[in-house]
Specification:
- This protein is α/β, with parallel strands linked by helices.
- It is built from 9 helices and 8 strands.
- Strand 4 and strand 5 form a beta hairpin.
- The radius of gyration is 22 Å and the shape is elongated.
C-alpha cells in the first residue's frame, strides 16, 4: 500500500481529483520544483488548468477557486487576471502550504513545457513538448536586461553621491535583479527571466562578486564597494554583448563608479 501523500503533494492530489470531476477541465500541469521532481514539504504548488471550451474560462475560474478554498483552512487568497481571459489564484493555507493556480483556455498551451509535469490530460495536448518563449533569452531580452542593469547602477551611484543611501540600495537591488537574469542567460540555464531562481535550480556556482554586491551595512563605504562589485559582475556577463545602445550607457555609467573612496 502506498504512503498517503502529504504537504504539497496532497494539495496536487486534491486539485487533480476536483478537476477530474468537472466537465470543463481539459488538462492540469504542475511546474516549479514539484514539476521538476525536486519538491519537498516546503514547496508551493505552481499549477495551470486548461479549460474547454474557451468561453467557460471565467465560470471555471470561479468554480476552481471555490473548490481550492475547501482544500484546507485558508489564511488568505488573491485572484488576478492571467493572460487575456484567464485568472490566477494565489492561496495561502493556514498550515503553510501555498497554491498558485492559473486557469486559462486549454488552447493557451500547445504542449507541455520543460520543467512541468502533466497531472491530468484529457485532450492529449500535453503529450507534445513545446518550448515557451521564456525558456531562453533572445537578443532583445538580453539588450533590455543589460540596459536596465546599467541604468539602475547609474542611479545607484547618483543616489550614493547625494547621500541618499536607501535609494542607492534600492537601485542597486534593481540592477542586481537584471544581472541575475544576464548571468542565467550566460550560463545557458532554462528560464533565465527568473534570474537567481533559475541559476540555483540549475545548481550553478554563484560568482563571488554577486555576494560582494550586497552591502554589509547601509553606510557609504559599504554601498560603494557593493556598487563596484556589481559593476565588475555586469561587465563580465555582458562582455560578448556588442550593442551600441548598451555599451554607450555602460561607458557613461562606468565613469560614475570608481573605487569606494572616490564615491564619497
Amino acid at each position: 500500500m502506498g504512503r498517503t501523500p502529504t504537504g504539497p503533494w496532497a494539495l496536487v492530489g486534491a486539485l487533480r481529483d476536483y478537476l477530474a470531476s468537472t466537465s470543463w477541465c481539459a488538462w492540469l500541469e504542475v511546474a516549479g520544483s514539484l514539476g521538476r521532481g525536486a519538491g519537498d514539504e516546503a514547496s508551493d504548488v505552481d499549477a495551470g488548468a486548461g479549460v474547454s471550451p474557451d468561453g467557460e474560462v471565467s465560470r471555471a475560474a470561479e468554480a476552481a477557486l471555490c473548490a481550492a478554498l475547501r482544500f484546507g483552512p485558508v489564511a488568505g487568497h488573491l485572484s488576478t487576471p492571467f493572460g487575456r481571459t484567464g485568472t490566477h489564484h494565489a492561496i495561502q493555507y493556514a498550515d503553510g502550504r501555498q497554491l498558485s493556480l492559473a486557469v486559462m483556455p486549454a488552447t493557451a498551451r500547445p504542449g507541455l513545457a520543460r520543467g512541468s509535469v502533466a497531472v491530468l490530460d484529457r485532450s492529449g495536448r500535453l503529450t507534445v513538448d513545446f518550448a515557451p518563449s521564456v525558456l531562453r533569452a533572445d537578443p532583445d531580452a538580453l539588450r533590455e536586461w543589460a540596459f536596465l542593469a546599467w541604468w539602475e547602477l547609474g542611479d545607484a551611484a547618483k543616489h550614493l553621491r547625494r547621500g541618499s543611501l536607501w535609494r542607492a540600495v534600492t537601485s542597486l537591488e534593481e540592477a542586481r535583479r537584471q544581472v541575475w537574469r544576464l548571468l542565467a542567460a550566460r550560463e545557458g540555464v532554462d528560464y533565465p527571466l527568473f534570474g537567481a531562481v533559475s541559476v540555483q535550480n540549475a545548481d550553478r556556482p554563484v560568482p563571488a562578486w554577486m555576494g560582494e554586491s550586497h552591502p554589509v551595512a547601509i553606510e557609504p563605504e559599504a554601498v560603494g564597494r557593493a556598487l563596484v562589485a556589481l559593476r565588475r559582475g555586469l561587465e563580465s556577463v555582458t562582455v560578448d554583448l556588442d550593442e551600441p545602445m548598451v555599451t554607450g550607457l555602460a561607458s557613461v555609467v562606468g565613469t560614475r563608479i570608481g573605487s569606494p573612496t572616490e564615491e564619497r
